[in-house]
Amino acid sequence: MNLRKWIGRDVELIYADADGRLTRRLVRLARVEADYVYGFDREKRLPRTFRLDGILAAQPADGPGGRAGRRLG
Question: What is the residue extent of each domain of the chain?
Fold first, then answer.
């Protein structure tokens, strides 16, 4: 999955954590390095690190069906 093209943009992620829990995240991507993606979680208002193999789907938040400008919930 090539997430580098969205660095600096808000991206919606479907993410499976280490325990297999699925979450939907709205993240401002900062950088992608080897097996990790670094960004700012817009809902939690905190920097976060995501394992690349845990990202099941990604799309720009300002694209069709994106949540940019909408409150998460």
Answer: 4-60
SS3 67: coil
- Give pLDDT tens digits for 3-21: 999 999 999 999 999 999 9
Cβ atoms of 38 and 49 closer than 8 Å: yes
- The class that CATH gives domain 4-60 is mainly beta
Cα distances (Å, whole numbers) of residue 64 to 9, 27, 36, 39: 15, 17, 26, 22
Q: What is the pTM of this model?
A: 0.80
